[in-house]
């Protein structure tokens, strides 16, 4: 069984497009856990209108933000393998099968794939997110704290990895970075693959987008993440 975990917020313009690209790759026994963070548009109605039993929609009573919404989704997931998904990207056909095959061939606990980067009109920005973002393809705990190269929408991992990461520390910068850090601290096998399996949509409406921060804000974020790592696993350092 697979669990796709998605956080939504005012995503009516694109959430159905994304769900269509996912649903056609899933079996009847898989699930999509959607945690809506109090959308004020038609997001919830559109999702409910699909009438697909694989979709489990949960609505936050108050706006808690993407980190806590993804934390809730992970806690609700029942699948052996978990995929994270943003509301506005597009999964390319074969993404699920490719990741499951790579996971089996490599014995990996975490698979991270590449993506084509596009704008809100789906016009190409870059053929590779890894190159566009200068991601470190040999991640360690330290370099992941310094510069997070993990994008949740390009990650799949075992349920054990998910459970190891829960509950999220309050001071972390992003959910995907924390899941990756937790996996690395638990000595899980993390494999980065070159396969382009998704259109990664970059625009100002992403539920998980982060506004450009000052150097001081970024430094504070790194320090808070480092504190979370030390508190989580005092033996690491």
End-to-end Cα distance: 36 Å
Percent range for β-strand residues? 15-25%
Question: Do you know the CATH architecture?
Answer: Alpha-Beta Complex
CATH superfamily: Spore Coat Polysaccharide Biosynthesis Protein SpsA, Chain A
Top CATH class: Alpha Beta
* Topology as a string of helices (H) and strands (E): EHEHEHEEHEEHHEHHEH
| Low-pLDDT runs | 205-210
Approximate helicity band: 25-40%
Overall strand count: 9
Query: According to CATH, what is the topology?
Result: Spore Coat Polysaccharide Biosynthesis Protein SpsA, Chain A
Word description of this protein:
InterPro entries: Glyco_trans_2-like (IPR001173), Nucleotide-diphossugar_trans (IPR029044). Pfam families: Glycos_transf_2 (PF00535). It comes from Vagococcus elongatus. By secondary structure, the chain is α/β, with parallel strands linked by helices. The chain has a single domain, classed as Spore Coat Polysaccharide Biosynthesis Protein SpsA, Chain A. 36% of the residues lie in helices and 22% in strands. Strands 1, 2, 3, 4, 5, 6, 7, 8 and 9 form a nine-stranded mixed beta sheet that branches. The longest helix is centred in the C-terminal third of the chain and has 18 residues, at 215-232. It is globular and about 45 Å long. The N and C termini lie far apart (36 Å).
Q: Helices and strands in order, then pairings?
A:
Elements: E1 2-8, H1 15-23, E2 31-36, H2 43-49, E3 55-59, H3 65-76, E4 81-85, E5 90-91, H4 95-106, E6 110-118, E7 124-126, H5 129-132, H6 141-146, E8 155-158, H7 159-165, H8 175-185, E9 190-201, H9 215-232
Parallel strand pairs: 1-2, 1-4, 2-3, 6-9
Antiparallel strand pairs: 4-8, 5-9, 6-7, 6-8
């Amino acid at each position: 069984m697979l669990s796709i975990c998605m956080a939504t917020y005012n995503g009516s313009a694109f959430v159905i497009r994304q769900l269509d690209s996912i649903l056609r790759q899933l079996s009847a026994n898989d699930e999509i856990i959607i945690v809506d963070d109090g959308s004020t548009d038609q997001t919830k109605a559109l999702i409910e209108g699909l009438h697909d039993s694989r979709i489990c929609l949960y609505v936050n009573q108050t706006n808690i933000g993407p980190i806590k919404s993804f934390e809730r989704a992970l806690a609700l997931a029942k699948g052996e393998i978990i995929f994270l998904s943003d509301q506005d990207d597009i999964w390319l056909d074969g993404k699920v099968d490719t990741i499951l095959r790579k996971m089996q061939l490599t014995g990996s606990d975490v698979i991270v794939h590449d993506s084509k980067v596009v704008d809100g009109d789906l016009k190409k920005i870059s053929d590779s997110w890894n190159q566009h973002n200068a991601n470190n393809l040999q991640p360690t705990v330290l370099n992941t704290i310094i510069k997070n190269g993990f994008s949740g929408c390009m990650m799949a991992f075992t349920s054990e990895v998910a459970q190891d990461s829960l509950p999220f520390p309050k001071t972390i910068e992003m959910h995907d970075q924390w899941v990756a850090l937790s996996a690395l601290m638990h000595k899980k096998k993390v494999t980065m693959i070159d396969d382009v399996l998704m259109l990664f949509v970059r625009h100002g409406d992403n539920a998980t987008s982060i506004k450009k921060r000052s150097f001081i804000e970024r430094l504070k974020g790194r320090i808070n993440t480092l504190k979370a790592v030390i508190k989580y696993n005092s033996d690491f350092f």
